[in-house]
Amino acid sequence: MLSLSESSTQVRPGPRIESLSDMIFGLALSVGAITLVGSPPQTPVQLFTMSRLSGLVFS
Question: What is the pTM of this model?
Answer without folding.
Answer: 0.49
